[in-house]
Amino acid sequence: MTAKISLTKEGWIHFSALLAILGIVYYLYQQGFSGGSFFDDLHNLGSLDKVRDFDSALGFIMNGSGGPLGRPLAYLSFILNAPSWPDSIGDILHTNTCIHLINGLLLIWLAYKLVRFFPEKIHSPEKLALTLGILWLAHPLLVSANLMAVQRMTTLSATFVLGGLLTFVTGLENIRTHARRAFWLMTLGISLGTALATLTKENGILLPLYALVIQATLLANVKPHASAWFIWWRRIFLILPVLALPVYFVFTWPQIIDGYAIRDFSPGERLLTQSRVLANYLYLIAVPLRSSLGPYHDDFIVSRGIFSPYSTFVALAFWLTAFIGAFIYRKKYPVASFGILWFLAGHNLESSVLSLENYFEHRNYLPAIGPLFAISYFFWRQNGRPGVWLKYALAAYIGLYLIVLHGATEVWGNRNLAAELWSRDHPASERAAQELSQRYFSLGKRQRAQEIIAHASQRDPQNIGLALQTLQTACGLGNEKAILEQLERPEADKILKQGKVSTLICGTMSNMAYMVIDKQCGQIAANDLQQIIDRVLPNPRLKGTPDINYCLHDLKSMLYYNERNLEMTMKHLELAFSHKKYLNTAVRMVEFPASAGLYDVAQENLESALRQKPKNPLIAKIWEKKLAEVKTKLDYFRNLNEQAKTSGKQKQ
Fold it and tell me: I want to staple 297 with a disulfide (CB 3.0 to 4.6 A). Which of 359, 478, 602, 647 is the partner?
């Protein structure tokens, strides 16, 4: 006999609604698949096209630079898209969107289980869960998490968080009837879920905090059987990991402070600013506006004090009141408390003292669930059946989300239009100006591209990246020499040596280096770029920025290598290697002197690279194998050279 699955008429309606929203959301996101790459996409995925076999795949996975733990599971997932990279970023965005839809299904399942725990009767718990899933899946604030290739790290980590929480709640369901099985499920959900989520992105470590919020609010009135065991379990698997977070901050405080070298705000100012950032996030979760959405928010005003601006004080007072109220009344008003505490828990890392940029929309991917749960509850709470007007209001609210989502994804899929709109919506954004300038540059409108960057540089005169990009956009216009002379003036020299470090520095200097080598910037010589880099490198703000230091020294080595200056090439390769231990740099440190017949130097560098191989045994194995191949070639050419010398002596 085969079991038959039967659905009531209402069940079929819910199932049809679910299929419909999945299809609509995918269709709307599909508009954005042609949007291309953003931010760190190329930095993190640049070597994906080199994945050819198991060893190259393992090297890509284990050498990730997305975070302190390397995020290997996220990089593993990108292997699926290796065949189409870099020709079709849309293939990655398709996979990202599918992950988002899967996460929506997990969320609906989790919400349904949680609502069934409520002591009071909820009218149509399946409708509440479905409403939450629809609002979250279609929320425009989450677009950047799905249409930025590298943000799969965020969404895939969320998959493991939701899966872990679902397993945890399933365990709680069974704690009265099958206590041993329940504790095993809860332990598996929290421990394995946290491990997998954290190895995908570091804020997966917040899973125990999410579980603690659920248990302290929505399930606060649920008294588990064998409660003494549960209390100890909660202390070990939920409370202890949460308490470990501030301990981590204490032990890594020097590194955290070093990270502020490139920021124009202090840890205290960042915390003050985050009060306003979180308030802005919360507003956009409730009322998404297309004009307020996009990838560029580097123009968000920093709070320099409690009353600077005055909205800082208002935001601080709001969050302090909200947190205290949610904690005190978590049993009386569990849903409202859940909405607030979940949201704050989700931002516990990225809105802390960590030296991160202030504002990114994708940080709301999981935190948005809290407020949206409260909104969904509003429509389906116990007060009899919701009135017709409330049903219409819900339909209109979902419609608003879909309309804004349609507009947002349409913009993301048209980069020329997006550049214009994002620059208009964020006129003080460095990144928005750069994006717009690049669009015009690619269209051959170089004069307009230069005007945009020049205007941005005038608005932010201490920004090194913008100052350098004025020179890049001048290439081909015939006035690059005039811009170069401006950069040699004392006031410009001071900016390069003491100004604000920007993420534009490396990309701009790299582009200019290739343009100079390819003779596309006739009035600028390699020596001019060398001098600019030499003036930037002493900037004290570069302390604690190994990526930028590596990049600048690597560019100098490339320029010297192009001029066949081996001594200076090796000097800057070694300096680059001292900042970032990359295998390809180690290989070049062997191959370059070998190509000049300096086999002893090459051998010394090879042995030095082996001594400095990574501690991770998997990565170390990759290094050993690659350097063994290099050694084989080195020995081969050394023997050829010795044979040639011997043959020459014999002829004499």
Answer: 359
Alpha carbons 479 and 486: distance in angstroms, whole number: 11
Do residues 118 and 217 make contact, with C-beta atoms less than 8 angstroms apart?
A: no
Q: Is residue 329 part of a domain?
A: yes
For 651, list phi and psi in degrees, rounded to 5: -65, -35
Instruction: Record the pTM.
Output: 0.91
Model confidence at 537, in pLDDT bands (50, 70, 90)? Answer: very high
Is residue 523 assigned to a domain?
no
Q: What angle do CA 284, 99, 88 make, to 5 degrees?
A: 100
pLDDT computed for residue 444 by the predictor: 84
Residues 72 and 62: beta-carbon distance below 8 Å: yes
Beta carbons within 8 Å of 166's beta carbon, 6+ residues apart: 106, 109, 110, 113, 189
Distance CA 500, CA 462 (A): 6
Residue pair 193/161 in contact by the 8 Å Cβ criterion? yes
Instruction: With a cut of 80, say whether residue 435 has pLDDT above it.
Output: yes
Report DSSP state, residue 414: -
Cα angle at 580 between 579 and 581, to 5 degrees? 125
State how far the Cα of 465 lies from the Cα of 462, in Å rounded to an integer: 9
- By percentage, how much of the chain surpasses pLDDT 70? 95
- Ordered DSSP codes for 513-574: HHHHHTT-STT--HHHHHHHHHHHTT-GGGTT-HHHHHHHHHHHHHHHHHTT-HHHHHHHHH
Q: How sure is the predictor about 3, in pLDDT bands with cuts at 50, 70 and 90?
A: very low
Q: Are 556 and 572 in contact (CB under 8 A)?
A: yes
Handedness of CA 85, 87, 92, 95 (dihedral sign): negative
CA distances from 151 to 23, 158, 481 (A): 22, 11, 40
Does any domain span residue 83? no
Q: Could you read off the pLDDT of 122-160 as tens digits, one per residue?
A: 667 888 999 999 999 999 999 999 999 999 999 999 999
How far is the C-alpha of 303 from the C-alpha of 59, rounded, in Å? 42
Give a yes or no: residue 393 inside a domain.
Answer: yes
Alpha carbons 176 and 119: distance in angstroms, whole number = 16
**Number of structural domains in the chain:** 1
Question: How many CB atoms are located within 10 Å of the residue 321 CB?
Answer: 10
pLDDT tens, residue by residue, 596-641:
889 899 999 999 999 998 888 888 888 888 899 999 988 888 888 7
Residues 6 or more apart from 206 whose CB is under 8 A from it? 161, 345, 346, 348, 349
Two tokens at 562?
A: 């192009």
- A 10 A CB-CB count for 250 gives 8
Whether 562 and 600 have beta carbons less than 8 Å apart is answered as no
Q: Residue 367, preceding bond cis, omega within 30 degrees?
A: no
User: To the nearest 10°, the Cα dihedral for 480, 484, 485, 489?
Assistant: 150
Listed in sequence order, the DSSP H helices in 116-178 are 125-137, 143-147, 152-173
**Cα dihedral 42→45→50→51 (10° resolution):** -160
Give residue 421's identity as a one-letter amino acid code: L
Please give the single-letter amino acid code of residue 33: F
Q: Tell me if 382 sits within 8 A of 284, measured CB to CB.
A: no
Other C-beta atoms closer than 10 Å to the C-beta of 464 total 26
Q: Which of 599, 606, 447, 441 is nearest to 507 (CA)?
A: 441
Asked if residue 573 lies in contact with residue 557, where contact means CB atoms within 8 angstroms, the answer is yes
